[in-house]
Design goal:
alpha/beta; four-stranded mixed beta sheet; 7 strands; three-stranded antiparallel beta sheet; 2 helices; about 130 residues; globular
């Protein structure tokens, strides 16, 4: 579904690093928000080549709160298994008078996405 040369993947070396980093964060009682240019959900032509493998890793770690990506210029949001998967709307192909971007504010009890232009505001409770 996503085998296009303009997509990409997270290689095995990076996956091992990510898994170790997630385990270390869990031991320290930290919550985690992951950022990546590509997305994981919803599954479409714009997700990482190995999106299933990455999702499986994320779902093993309760302390991962959100995965924020881009690449899907229309934006997207999926809440699955207690995790937020969010693609920020892109500015590509926008008129010079319209923008799309966001500022993420993280607090101990919530994450606030302050949208500008075409991007929506969002508030997610951190449990």
């Amino acid at each position: 579904v996503n085998a296009y040369d303009w997509n990409g993947a997270i290689d095995q070396k990076q996956l091992k690093w990510l898994e170790k980093t997630l385990k270390d964060a869990s031991k320290k009682g930290k919550r985690v928000i992951l950022f990546c240019h590509l997305t994981l959900l919803p599954v479409n032509a714009l997700v990482l080549w190995n999106h299933e493998e990455i999702k499986d890793l994320i779902f093993k770690h309760d302390h991962v709160f959100a995965f924020i990506g881009g690449h899907d210029h229309n934006g997207n949001y999926v809440y699955e298994k207690g995790k937020h998967f969010f693609a920020v709307k892109g500015v590509l192909n926008e008129s010079e008078h319209e923008t799309s971007c966001a500022v993420v504010h993280v607090f101990s009890d919530r994450m606030v996405i302050e949208g500008f232009g075409r991007e929506d505001d969002r508030v997610w409770e951190i449990k």
